[in-house]
Amino acid sequence: MLKINNLHVSVDDGQKPILTGLSLEVPKGEVHAIMGPNGAGKSTLSYALTGRDGYEITDGTVTLDGKDLLDMEPEERAAAGVFLSFQYPLEIPGVPTMTFLKTALNAQRKARGEEEMKAPEFLKTARALAAELKMKPEMLKRPLNVGFSGGEKKRMEIFQMMMMEPSFIVMDETDSGLDVDALRIVADGVNKLRSPDRGMLIITHYQRLLDYIVPDRVHVLANGGIAASGDAEFAKKLEREGYDAYAA
């Protein structure tokens, strides 16, 4: 599925190295979690994978199902099945949520040579998934994320993921700002997306999210690379002991 080898990423026009030789493999069907101290480069990894401007790849390779991800434009990566759930989802005034989502969904389908989803099927699917996530119907009628609480924005991200059905999901601190009830709802949506054909990379500071989305592997990102790895129980150890042993 996703294979990262010796990845180096810099910012500030290449003057500031952030990742300095990160290697990681997430097999198809598995959920991996990335934890680590502030400033370790967790969000940098997510942006590098999805092609955000300002993050310069200076060395290394990234492949998704054997295809060179770094050779693709951001929209090509999305069409290939990569989805990023942002830590701070953007508001887009004037753009209706449903119009945005239908346009994005059908653009990806077209790029993959698939038929567009017709309006009746789109609306039926959207309403059913929104109900699963306990989203009020009014949320689908607003401009994208405008006037939403933090929890509502995160639910909207999960809703988009469920509609788009990506093959590889990167979640950048999706638990940030969520209360317990919202966290459970978001986690339920993510767990419904677990599949033998889908991989996930969950970036988080805190172990609490991993009580609800139990990962197959947990990795510590420190000093520009993966400093240690373990199973789901490893996250609980990190919660108790912190990252000092890996951040020196």
Automatic annotation (TrEMBL):
InterPro entries found in the cross-reference section: AAA+_ATPase, ABC_transporter-like_ATP-bd, FeS-cluster_ATPase_SufC, P-loop_NTPase
Domain ABC transporter: 2-248
Alphabetically ordered keywords of this record: ATP-binding, Nucleotide-binding
Record keyword tRNA processing present: no
Claim: Nucleotide-binding is one of the keywords in the record: yes
Database matches in Gene3D superfamilies: P-loop containing nucleotide triphosphate hydrolases
Highest taxon of the lineage: Bacteria
One GO MF term attached to the UniProt entry: ATP binding
Stated family: Belongs to the ABC transporter superfamily. Ycf16 family.
Official protein name in the record: ABC transporter ATP-binding protein
